[in-house]
């Protein structure tokens, strides 16, 4: 994977970026990012997956540390397949404007822990 020319990117340019797996299969796109207000660390990429014309989409908070940007693909790459995303924890669309992950973070990081990603708050 090639690294980007510029190491920083504004959040509004991250939104809408494709997410694919290592085989190149498109899994969805980044709908938004969730940033911890205190530490300033990006906690999650909110991945939109499935649905047609905006109906039936599911939103998956994927730990930011799990994503790697591939400049050649112009996409973020994750070590997941479609089945893994389908089984991953979700949030409701109404929570995209801000949500408290305190009640779901154990499930999220419990799920993604198998990929070697630890909690963002540690």
Number of alpha- plus pi-helical segments: 3
What's the CATH architecture?
Roll
How many strand units?
6
- Any idea what the CATH superfamily is called? PRC-barrel domain
Shape: globular
Give me the side-by-side strand order of the main sheet: 4-3-2-1-6-5
- CATH fold field value: SH3 type barrels
Distance between the termini: 28 Å
Low-confidence stretches: none
CATH class: Mainly Beta
Q: What number of structural domains do the residues give?
A: 1
Give a short account of the largest sheet.
6 strands, mixed
Describe the overall structure.
The chain is globular, with a radius of gyration of 14 Å. It has a six-stranded mixed sheet. 15% of the residues lie in helices and 29% in strands. The protein has a single domain (11-114), classed as PRC-barrel domain (SH3 type barrels, Roll). The model has no long low-confidence stretch (mean pLDDT 88). 22% of the residues are buried. It has three helices and six strands. With 122 residues, the protein is α+β, with helices and mostly antiparallel strands.
